[in-house]
Amino acid sequence: MLEGKKYMFSTTWNAPAEAFNDRNKFFEGRNVEDVLFHLHLIHKYTGMEGLKTFSCFDVKKNPDIDFYKKDLKDHLGRYFQV
């Protein structure tokens, strides 16, 4: 088992952020963590603790690389010294 270990998912979506958390959009009101729930369960089963997922959205049609580079640094800064 992997008790005491932590994990973090980093995802890229071609969907815009607005596709989440809206019952009328593709993901039917689910957020990113909901969509990844099955993967979180696998890690939970092994005893690992999840950190908040980092996600980039609309990566093909509207990539904002500079924003996501800063956002990733901020995200990691919540958990580690970067």
UniProtKB/TrEMBL annotation:
Specify the signal sequence span.
Answer: none
Any one Pfam family here would be: Flavodoxin_2
Keyword hit for tRNA processing? no
Listed InterPro entries: Flavodoxin_fold, Flavoprotein-like_sf, NADPH-QR_MdaB
Q: Which UniProt keywords apply?
A: FAD, Flavoprotein
Question: Which intervals hold domain Flavodoxin-like fold?
Answer: 2-66
Among Gene3D superfamilies, the record links this protein to: 3.40.50.360
What cofactor is needed? FAD
Q: What family is this protein classified in?
A: Belongs to the oxidoreductase MdaB family.
What name does the UniProt record give this protein?
Answer: Flavodoxin-like fold domain-containing protein
| Species the sequence originates in | Pontibacillus marinus BH030004 = DSM 16465
